[in-house]
Design brief:
This protein is 80% helix and 0% strand. The mean pLDDT is 93.
Length: 134
C-alpha cells in the first residue's frame, strides 16, 4: 500500500480510538452526574487519550523493529493484535497514572470498570472490522 493510501486506515483508526475514549468518558460522566461541560469532559478525556497515544507509539516502534525497514513499517493500528491491545493497555495504564499524578482519583472500582469498558470499546471496533473484512 502506498503512503497516501495507507494514511486513510491509520487516520480512521485514530478517529475510532478517539471516539471510543470520548464515548467512555461521556458515559462515565453522565452516569456519575459529573456534568457534561466541555471542560469536564476534556479533563477526564485527556489522560486516557495520551495513554492511548503512548500505546500507539509503542505499537509503531514494534512495527518498525519487526519490519526491519526504516521507511515503511508494517504499522497496522486497526489490527487487534498487537496494536489494539497495546492501545488499550496504554489508555488504561498511562491514563490511570496521569489521573493519579494530576489528582483526579483512581478508585479500584474505577480501574476495573475503565479496563473492561475501554477494552470493549477499543478492541470491539477492531474485532468488528476484522469480522466484516472476512
Amino acid at each position: 500500500m502506498t503512503a497516501p493510501t495507507r494514511a486513510r486506515p491509520i487516520a480512521l483508526a485514530a478517529l475510532f480510538d478517539v471516539v471510543a475514549i470520548l464515548v467512555f468518558v461521556i458515559i462515565g460522566r453522565f452516569n456519575h452526574d459529573d456534568g457534561l461541560t466541555i471542560g469536564g469532559i476534556f479533563s477526564t478525556f485527556w489522560p486516557f487519550a495520551i495513554g492511548g497515544a503512548v500505546g500507539w507509539s509503542i505499537a509503531y516502534v514494534i512495527a518498525h523493529v519487526r519490519s526491519g525497514e526504516i521507511g515503511d513499517p508494517d504499522f497496522r493500528p486497526e489490527s487487534l493484535v498487537p496494536d489494539g491491545i497495546l492501545t488499550w493497555i496504554g489508555a488504561v495504564a498511562i491514563g490511570m497514572i496521569l489521573r493519579d499524578q494530576f489528582g483526579q482519583g483512581i478508585a479500584v472500582s474505577f480501574v476495573i470498570v475503565a479496563t473492561i469498558v475501554l477494552g470493549v470499546f477499543l478492541l470491539g471496533w477492531r474485532a468488528a472490522r476484522r469480522r466484516l473484512a472476512r
